[in-house]
Structure formats: C-alpha cells, structure tokens
Amino acid sequence: MSYYDIDSILTDAEKIPCTFQLDIPDLGYLDNNPSHTLKSGTRIQLPLWLAEMLAIANTGSLDEQAKSFVTFDLPSALGNDVVQALKADPRAVPLRDQSPHFYGLATHMMDLSEEQELAAVLRKTFVTRASEIALHARKVGGANQHGAKGQADEASNLGVGGAGEEFLRGLDEWERKLFRKAHDGTRAGKEWMDSVKKR
Amino acid sequence: MPMYGDLGNKLVQHAKRTQNLTHLPPYQAELVRSVAREVRDLDKDVASMLEPFQGSFDPSAHQAMACTLLVNHLSMRRNKRCLLAYHRTRTDKLEELVWSGYDVLDLSAQQTAGEEDYVRQYGDLLAAYKGQWTDIDLTGSLEPPRDLFIDVRVLKDAGEIQTEYGAINLTKNSQFYVRQGDVERLIAQGYLQKLA
C-alpha cells in the first residue's frame, strides 16, 4: 500500500455514508446544493480520502465533548445483508458487485472501527475464497496440458464453464491478482518441468 | 455531482489502464492541466479565507471554517497524490520500455518533451550501468539459445553491422545466417525477424 499504489488510490475513492455534526456554510456543494449551508445531521456519501480525515480530526473545541466534523457508518458493501450472505457461503457472493476494491475498502474500515465479528467474517471469507481461486487457477492452467499447444486453446479454456465463470467474474481486484499469480505460477512450473524433461 | 478530486480520479483510472498495456498511451495533457488548475483554485480559496485573520486563525473559535479549510486541504493533497501517481506510472512504463530495448524514436509520438528527455537520460544511465560488464548484455534475452547460428530476414534497412566474421549489409528483405548474439538487439528492435 504505497503512496503511489494505483489500486490503493482507487480504493480511497470508494464512498462511505457520513453524517455531518455541525453547520458549515461553505460546504453546501458537497450536498449538491452550493450557496446553501450544509446543515448538521446531513447524510452524504463521501470518498474515503475525505471521510477518514474528517472523522479523525476534531473540531478543536476545548469542552469535554469535543466531537469530530463527521461520523460515518459502514458502507453498504459491508452491510448486514452482505455479511449474512458471506456467513452462509463466501463463495456465493460476487464481491465485485459490492465494490471492485472490496478487501481494500474492508481493511480500511477495520482500521477505523472495531468490529471484531465483521473482521472474523472477512478473514474467513478470504481464506475460503482463496482456496477456491487456487483451484480454478490450477484448472485453467491444467487444461493446457491435455489440449494441443497454443494461445487459442488456453483462451477457450479460461471460461472453465458455468459456475466457475460466474465465480471468477465476482472476484475483487485483490483476488484477481491472486488468481493471475496462481495461474501464472502453475503454468511457469509446468513449462519448467517440460523443459527439464526435454533435455 | 462533480466534486473536488473527481478529475484526479479520472487520471488515476488512466494510470490503471496504462499499467496493463504494453505500450504507452497518449499523455492526458488536458486532464493534468485541469487537476493542476483545481489545486490552484483551492489554494486561492484558502488564502482568501485566511486573509482577514492575519495569521492568527483559531480553529476552535471558527469550527465551520476550520472544516472547510480541512476539506480544501485534503482535496489539494488528494490531487497531488493523483498527479504524482499518474506520472510515476508513466515513467515506470518508460523505464520498462527502455530496458526491453525499444527504439526511443518509436515512442516519441505518445510522450511529452519532458518524458522524451527522461527516456534519453534514463537510457544513458542504463548504458553507463551496462558498460561496467562488457562481456554480458544485461538487456539481452533470458532464454538460453538453442543454436549458435540462426536464420534471419531483414524487415527494415538497418545498415551495415560488424560481426566476428566480417561486415554484413542489412538491406530490406535479404536473408542471413548469422550468430544469434550479434543480432539479438536488432531482433528486439524489430529490424530483423528470426526464421524457424
């Protein structure tokens, strides 16, 4: 997660629901209403890069209940519906439909709030899905062995068919990288073995 | 609703696409200018907001303004990150192309004058680095050669080259049986085609 990391920057653009805690005259444009005061209690979807700092910074008042500018809730991608579905079967949820950077968003939210149960569900989700991803990645690479050689063969096998295709389409960015690595690794291993046999 | 940072995001999406390409797409001059302009506008806003305070702004006394200032500051910071990441992605790509032996002139259509300069200087650096090991071609192929000599066809005129066995004049469409090591660069650059 470096400063220059493109995926990390795109993750920071994911929006989460925020509630403003005070009236701010100049920020009406955030609520699509320039020239009007942004009222305390207004709920707006703000990108992470903005919401995070606004939630952490406090208003600087010296009294006891110094509050932050905004409070935030978990985004719908981590809402109850999704969590229940993940509990039932992590493999059946197309994470990509929730957010292309699902895990990035989730880990970011975990940093900001302490939701032990949610963290446990997410961990289990990743582990379960990771082994499924590895399985598919091997299958795709393995199909090459039986078929003749050539790109066309490989491409036609990328689909893996029905359920697998559905699952792979639902991978988030991180999982896609994992899949690509597992797939390339399997293939490189096989290529190396073949070249050893030839000598 | 357009918001501060939206343009920067567009730029980063371009960068994301660039990462997956084998060539360098055109420079998004207009977008870069717009993002830079956004930063200048934000900076102007901040300056005019703080002006009446003469350097003695107290955030706890003006909470709403403190929040506006923070939002402005964060937007500028976000834009800066987007701009830097976009350019870094491009320079990474250029370095990659230099290492793989692309002809600098082939690239120049897509890049800015600054990037062209970057490629030239990076190329010089790489050449100086490679110069330390004259008996190894650091940018050569990692595939061990199967044959010492290969058949090649000339795709573009490449002039005369010197080999251990004398000079060869590479004119278009001619065919030669040459030592692989002598022509590897020319194959990578697309002057020659290796024949099976």
TrEMBL record, chain A:
Against Gene3D superfamilies, the record matches this protein to: 1.20.58.2050
Give a short account of what the protein does. The GINS complex plays an essential role in the initiation of DNA replication.
Name the family the entry cites.
Belongs to the GINS3/PSF3 family.
The root-end lineage is: Eukaryota, Fungi, Dikarya, Ascomycota, Pezizomycotina
Q: Which domain of life is it from?
A: Eukaryota
Q: Under which name does UniProt file this protein?
A: DNA replication complex GINS protein PSF3
- InterPro entries for the chain: GINS_A, GINS_bundle-like_dom_sf, GINS_Psf3, GINS_Psf3_sf, PSF3_N
Q: Which GO terms describe its cellular component?
A: GINS complex
UniProtKB/TrEMBL annotation, chain B:
Q: Does the keyword Cytoplasm apply?
A: no
Major localization listed first in the record, in broad terms: nucleus
Q: Fetch the Pfam families from UniProt.
A: PSF1_C (PF24997), Sld5 (PF05916)
Cellular location(s): Nucleus
Which UniProt keywords are listed?
DNA replication, Nucleus
Q: Which domain of life is it from?
A: Eukaryota
* Start and end residues of each DNA replication complex GINS protein PSF1 C-terminal domain: 147-195
Statement: the UniProt record of this protein carries the keyword Nucleus: yes
State whether it acts alone or in a complex, and with which partners, per the record: Component of the GINS complex.
**Role, per record:** Required for correct functioning of the GINS complex, a complex that plays an essential role in the initiation of DNA replication, and progression of DNA replication forks. GINS complex seems to bind preferentially to single-stranded DNA.
Q: Which family does it belong to?
A: Belongs to the GINS1/PSF1 family.
Q: What is this protein called?
A: DNA replication complex GINS protein PSF1
